TrEMBL record:
Source organism of the structure: Actibacterium lipolyticum
Signal peptide bounds: none
InterPro entries the record matches: DUF2007 (IPR018551), N-reg_PII-like_a/b (IPR011322)
Residue span, DUF2007 domain: 3-66
Annotated protein name in UniProt: DUF2007 domain-containing protein
Organism lineage: Bacteria, Pseudomonadati, Pseudomonadota, Alphaproteobacteria, Rhodobacterales
Pfam families: DUF2007
Length: 75
């Protein structure tokens, strides 16, 4: 299964909101880099990523856009 990066942010509440939206639409997602705060000292400089299956990427982007979650410009 190929996973694609959907969202990258330092805001843990945004990650939680995006994850809840995707789960509500039955789109499986995976949060990466969640435990990196152990390495960085909990100062929040390392972003967290939300990954989705390649086949769900287009729909997941549309869901985030519809809920005013900013996506990278090149997407």
């Amino acid at each position: 299964m190929i996973m694609k990066e959907l969202l990258r942010t330092n805001d843990p509440t945004l990650v939680a909101f995006a994850t809840a939206l995707l789960q509500g639409e039955e789109i499986p997602c995976f949060q990466m880099d969640v435990h990196m705060s152990v390495l960085e000292g909990s100062i929040g400089i390392l972003p967290r990523r939300v990954m989705v299956r390649d086949k769900d990427l287009h729909m997941a982007r549309a869901i985030l856009r519809d809920n005013d979650i900013p996506l990278p410009e090149n997407e």
